[in-house]
């Protein structure tokens, strides 16, 4: 009675390990980009909930937004990426930015992020 061995060869194991390693490496580049985007969304939601935000000056709104981002260590969003425009009930804040991270040699991963929030909270009357 002959027993046959089954399982993965060493070369097969090395190939699987290389593929898993590549995916882990790419994930290490992507997770901070999406973490920063989450921080931007949270900063916008925090601004929208702030009492009296609709009555503030756009420069103060932008300053408050960047203070919130500074706490979250978000470094890729710059003032030129933020647009504040007047709407009927207050302000609309748009944040559009792009993040480029090098992966291997001349290959980059590019993320384009966009977030919009209406700042209409007038506060207590």
How is this structure best described in words?
The protein is of the alpha+beta class. Helix content is 43%, strand content 27%. The protein is built from 2 helices and 3 strands. Strands 1-2-3 form a 3-stranded antiparallel sheet, with helices on one face. Strand 2 and strand 3 (107-119) form a beta hairpin. Helix 1 (10-49) packs antiparallel against helix 2 (58-71). The chain starts with 9 loop residues before the first helix and ends in a 6-residue tail after the last strand. The model has no long low-confidence stretch (mean pLDDT 91).
Low-confidence stretches: none
Share of residues in strands = 25-35%
Widest β-sheet, arrangement of strands: 1-2-3
Number of helices: 2
Helix content: 40-55%
Morphology call: elongated
Global Rg: 23 Å
The largest sheet, given as strand count, sense and whether it forms a barrel, is: 3 strands, antiparallel
Overall mean pLDDT score? 91
Listing every helix as H and every strand as E from the N terminus to the C terminus, the arrangement reads HHEEE
Give a count of the beta strands, DSSP E runs of length 2 or more: 3
What is the SS-derived class?
A: alpha+beta
- Span of the ends, CA to CA: 90 Å
């Amino acid at each position: 009675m002959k027993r046959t061995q089954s399982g993965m060869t060493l070369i097969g194991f090395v190939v699987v390990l290389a593929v898993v390693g590549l995916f882990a490496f790419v994930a290490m580049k992507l997770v901070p980009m999406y973490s920063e985007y989450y921080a931007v969304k949270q900063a916008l939601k925090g601004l929208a909930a702030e009492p009296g935000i609709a009555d503030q000056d756009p420069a103060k709104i932008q300053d408050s937004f960047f203070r919130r981002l500074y706490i979250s260590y978000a470094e890729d969003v710059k003032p030129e990426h933020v647009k504040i425009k007047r709407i009927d009930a207050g302000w609309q804040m748009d944040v559009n930015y792009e993040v480029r991270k090098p992966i291997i040699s001349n290959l980059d991963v590019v993320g384009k992020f966009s977030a919009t929030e209406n700042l209409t909270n007038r506060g207590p009357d």
